[in-house]
Amino acid sequence: MNIPSELKYTKDHEWVRVEGDIATVGVTDFAQSELGDIVFVEVDTVDEELEAEEVFGSIEAVKTVSDLFMPLSGEILELNAQIEASPELVNADPYGEGWMIKIKIKDPAEVESLLSAEAYQEAIGA
Q1: pLDDT band for position 3 (50/70/90)?
Q2: Is the pLDDT of residue 30 over 90?
């Protein structure tokens, strides 16, 4: 199971890369492996400001549809256009080409509430 140590994580299986006041968000390797083949990612909240833990979209796999949750409060600046055309990138490269959204972070203190790689690994029992 790939759990990069430089990222932060949520209990809902999103990963977060913080660079200044911008956070890039995707789903973890664990999440994509549990979901199976990703066939569609829907995010219709671009340019909206959402609170942490609100639903920002959904991810559809062959066997299920799951909500995607905001890891931090902020404005959704961008959706990864590549995953609209090629949702399988989420399976192939969840921490790279398969990222989902970029957020302008509203409250930097919220970053401290996210899980470290070690804590996430413990949470999923890996």
Answers
A1: very high
A2: yes
* CA 28/CA 16 separation, integer angstroms: 9
Task: Specify the pLDDT at position 7.
Answer: 98
| Distance, CA of 110 to CA of 76 (rounded, Å) | 16
In this predicted structure, what is the pLDDT of residue 126?
81
93 Rama class: left (phi>0) / alpha (psi -120 to 50) / beta: beta
Burial class (CB in 10 A: 0-12, 13-18, 19+), 32: buried
* Domains along the sequence of the chain with CATH: 8-109 (2.40.50.100)
Q: Which amino acid is at 78?
A: E
Q: How large is the C-alpha radius of gyration of the chain?
A: 13
